UniProtKB/TrEMBL annotation:
Its cofactor is Cu cation. NCBIfam families: laccase. This is Laccase. Residues 1-24 form the signal peptide. Residues 34-146, 160-291, 437-550 form the Plastocyanin-like domain. It comes from Brachypodium distachyon. The gene is LOC100823268. SUPFAM superfamilies: Cupredoxins. Keywords: Apoplast, Copper, Lignin degradation, Metal-binding, Oxidoreductase, Repeat, Secreted, Signal.
Length: 578
């Protein structure tokens, strides 16, 4: 108990200091996790959700606020909740990464998360972080500027509209995860969703209620807070007859960028203004469409979710006969589902609103090759009786520890011998096509001293059967310096780095056939998961845990864990059913 008190006291001091005292509030939520039957696609399906809702409740705060979330687990699954993108300074214990920072909360148990929102504004989100449960356990986390003279760096929107893109799975999500870990990487959802609804392209959901009608007034500005909560796909989002002005991504402001198509990969968020300047009598389809890699990648059905933006009459003067529009909504022309270029351009056009003082001397340079390989059940290298396909970084497929979360092992100086160090470079060449090669599994970490400037170049395969990789780092934002197609070439590509106003994000989209480079300073001690946000990549090992050591002073040292921190004996068995 003493430890808990000390910890909260300490956290409170930090929050007060950061907020300059005064107007910070405490925002409290209770999340009851349970299984409910939801009807989609003519079918009642049992899903695990928070407070009976899909998406779950939106957490709304102001910068500087403290958040308390009581999680009451009435579901049959052990689970954790991760506060995606929240920087959690000196509060790694609250990160909610299953078996990285904590044991799952057991069925019929509770756990309370406490954290502060400091120096971030915009849209983030929260989600379950065990197995694939995040497909239904997720919601938006909206951070508004604190009251006072500082406010949005753009015209105050008329209204804010969350747009949570997701997927509807009929398969049980824990079973999905088991299947992934047994090498079945190609399961797909039944439908794409916007705000939990499949939309009017699917039968049984044609009812108005389910079609995501956004009623807007003519001549106003709306702020769309867009989250990609899907497991499998990057999405293109368009609204017929309208453009977006992107003003933020991952709760960092960007220079206003006007575009007719938004690209959003799993884990990412985008804040975009929508000016309702189209014909006021019109109705306009909004479409979220899943990108998929071209052949020879295995092909899946096209996933589209559709909503309608419609204007209501704000006592406009009566329309003339010739201005009358047909009732059929106008449809946007979508990019080709295999075309990666609109995505590449979207990311390439994002810059930070304010220039940043960028650390120029890099202490650690890491090259992370994102790949896949065979894991031989029998071990050894002949690998006759294969086995599973697993995703890898630098030829290692990450495996979660089964009994002691890495943060606890690290904190109590008890990192077991089974925990290895991920190599800083790749053994494999990325410029030729080759069949899958054998690989190995390990719980691999990379230790970093406090206050180290780290640069990581991520490389997707440069072979025909490639894919993009949205790489997400917990507990830190980073600068995205550059991206490119092809194999990273240090001599040539370093010159393209944006060292003036690179976007600041928590997830970097590493393009298909290409690379991306990030830079950050380790200022937050703890164990921070770095992983691909595609479910089929993260569940099968495209991950590493970055262990950031304590700094020299008390205020650069991770405090002890909360007294009521969950424990676990066997993670795998907790997942399934207890
Ligand atoms: C209904 O959902 C279940 C899984 O929850 C699935 O097995 C079944 O095929 C679905 N039925 C239809 C008609 O889609
Ligand atoms: C969990 O919280 C609920 C509601 O507050 C309470 O009734 C229950 O006793 C708690 N269970 C545990 C194991 O703490
Ligand atoms: C919807 O259902 C109708 C009638 O059952 C059928 O004719 C039509 O093909 C279905 N449409 C889709 C998109 O499944
Ligand atoms: C920005 O987008 C435009 C097309 O909309 C494209 O021509 C341009 O190359 C992009 N810029 C970058 C740096 O990717
Ligand atoms: C591979 O497994 C099959 C049965 O699963 C067995 O019949 C065969 O002998 C095995 N081959 C090798 C090389 O181990
Ligand atoms: C692949 O890369 C290696 C080393 O960088 C180079 O020697 C070789 O010529 C390249 N092959 C192709 C097909 O580009
Ligand atoms: C990858 O790891 C496996 C298993 O340790 C090993 O057999 C293989 O040679 C490695 N591949 C490369 C390219 O180093
Ligand atoms: C962090 O490192 C930089 C550059 O090496 C140094 O100037 C700075 O004083 C260090 N800060 C802390 C808090 O150690
Ligand atoms: Cu990936």
């Amino acid at each position: 108990m003493a430890a808990t008190v000390a910890f909260f006291f300490f956290a409170a001091i930090l929050a007060a200091a950061a907020a300059g005292g005064g107007d910070a509030a405490l925002v409290e939520h209770t999340f009851i996790v349970s299984q409910v039957r939801l009807n989609r696609l003519c079918n009642d399906t049992l899903v695990t959700v928070v407070n009976g809702q899909l998406p779950g409740p939106t957490i709304e705060v102001r910068e500087g606020d403290s958040v308390v979330v009581h999680v009451i687990n009435k579901s049959p699954h052990g689970l954790t909740i991760h506060w995606h993108g929240v920087k959690l300074q000196l509060n790694c214990w609250a990160d909610g990464a299953g078996m990285i920072t904590q044991c799952p909360i057991r069925p019929n148990n509770n756990f309370t998360y406490r954290f502060d929102i400091v120096e971030q504004e915009g849209t983030l989100w929260w989600h379950a972080h065990v197995a694939s449960l995040r497909a239904t356990i997720h919601g938006a986390l909206i951070i508004r500027p604190r009251p006072g003279p500082s406010s949005y760096p753009f015209p105050k929107p008329e209204k804010e509209i969350p747009i949570v893109i997701g997927e509807w799975w009929e398969m049980d999500l824990v079973e999905l995860d088991m299947r992934l870990r047994n090498g079945n990487l190609f399961d797909v959802p039944r439908a794409a969703t916007i705000n939990g609804q499949t939309g009017d392209l699917y039968n049984c959901s044609g009812a108005i209620k389910e079609s995501n009608i956004l009623n807007v007034e003519h001549g106003k500005t709306y702020l769309l807070r867009i989250v990609n909560a899907a497991l499998n796909s990057e999405y293109y989002l368009k609204i017929a007859g309208h453009k977006f002005t992107v003003v933020g991504a991952d709760a960092n402001y960007v220079k206003p960028y006007t575009t007719d198509v938004i690209t959003i990969a799993p884990g990412e968020t985008v804040d975009a203004l929508l000016v309702t300047d189209a014909h006021p009598g019109g109705r306009y389809y909004m479409i979220a469409m899943a990108y998929q890699p071209p052949k020879p990648a295995k092909q899946f059905p096209l996933f589209l979710s559709r909503g309608i933006v419609q204007y209501y009459d704000n006592n406009a003067s009566p329309r003339k006969e010739e201005e009358a529009l047909p009732n059929t909504p106008m449809a946007p022309e979508m990019p080709d589902q295999h075309d990666a270029v609109p995505s590449f351009y979207f990311y390439g056009n994002l810059t930070s609103l304010q220039p940043h003082p960028l650390p120029t001397i890099v202490d650690e340079r890491l090259f992370y090759a994102l790949d896949a390989g065979y894991f031989c059940r029998e071990g050894g290298s002949s690998c006759q009786n294969v086995s599973n396909i697993v995703a890898t970084i630098n030829n290692v497929s990450f495996q979660l520890p089964e009994t002691t979360p890495l943060l606890q092992a690290h904190y109590y100086n008890n990192m077991k011998s089974g925990i290895g160090t991920l190599p800083d470079g790749s053994p494999r060449m990325f410029n030729y096509s080759m069949s899958l090669a054998p690989t190995s599994k390990a719980t691999s970490v990379r230790k970093l001293r406090y206050n180290t400037t780290v640069e990581i170049v991520f490389q997707s395969p440069v072979i025909a059967d490639s894919y993009s990789n949205p790489m997400h780092l917990h507990g830190h934002d980073f600068f995205v310096l550059a991206q490119g197609f092809g194999k990273f070439d240090e001599k040539k590509d370093v010159k393209t780095y944006n060292l003036v106003d690179p976007p600041v994000r928590n997830t970097v989209h590493v393009p298909i056939y290409g690379w991306a480079a990030i830079r950050f300073v380790t200022k937050n001690p703890g164990v921070w998961y770095l992983h691909c946000h595609y479910g089929h990549h993260s569940s099968t090992g495209m991950a590493v845990a970055l262990v950031v050591e304590n700094g020299p002073t008390l205020d650069t040292t991770l405090p002890p864990p909360p007294a009521d921190f969950p424990s676990c004996d066997n993670y795998i068995s907790m997942l399934a059913n207890e």
